[in-house]
Amino acid sequence: MIDRTSSSAWVGRLVEMFASQGLDAVRLLRSAGLEPRRLEDPNGRFTVDEISLLWELAVQWSGNPALGVDRELAARFIDFEVIGFGMLASADLRAALEEFVPYLAVISSATTMELQRQGEDLWLVMGHAGYSRPLPPQRSTYSLLAWLTLCRWVTRHEVLPREVHFGFTPPADPSVWERAFGCAVRFGRADHRMLIAAADLALPLPARNPVLLALHEQATRERLLMLGNATTSVRVSEEIMRRLRHGEPRRQDIAAALAMTGRTLQRRLQAENTSFQQLVDEARRELARKYLADSRHALGEVAHLLGFADQGNFFRACKRWFGVPPARYRQQLQQQREPPAPAAPRPA
Q: In the chain, N or C terminus with fewer CB closer than 10 Å?
């Protein structure tokens, strides 16, 4: 199985954001079972569930259900590492997104970003994988808001999305979300996504520089190699996860997306002691945990999202993966969830 983690740099800035809102950062980390010294390791990584628990506690302790849903906070505390500087040197915003979204694993291998065209506009569709705890809505919001902030930073332009969608239920005060994104925000949708206008995508970037772009691309690739996220199996797994909702992906289509032949893909996967079908099965199992942990997804819908042609195949796969049928496994996940630590008073 592929470990899904986020960088210590990203988490460190997140903790700084929490501290700026009056929370005791050290106590918060330790209450989530995390040692603060882990943030000092430049190559350190945090699991999806560790970060979600941190968010749960921060929201609870702050008493603010809209914690982090703030454009200025995102601008102050995000850290996109080498990806941001690579995007900065790109020709325009569309090129920056297309070039560097595939390198998102540098920051988080638990987050995916898919670019979907709508005419000349572009949807940024965000997904998460590798978790068993429910994802706090504030976390998903902050992540998408961070991408919007990055678009503004590289263009030096007030980029405003045409529309934003979230998969969670409407918050008590949706206007906070609309102020943060500067556009209509719709809730209870199929996924988390943001529509960027063609005019913004075509903006030439003030710091564009082909020489620096090549250097940043190389630095980003080296960073991925160091993290172990540049292997063929990881890249194939990410492509599979993006495509499963449209049906079981074909090996030749994945190979074409990665600019290689089907034979080359097969040879490289064999060298990494895996196979295309094994990666499909692992991706389905990982996403099954994600979708079954969220009671909003009916079992038939989960089967569809995993690319199964019928529910019978999904049922048999769950028995093989988890030893129990999907409904029973969903019950087990709900029973295993640990409640957040007791609420702490906000420091005076």
A: C
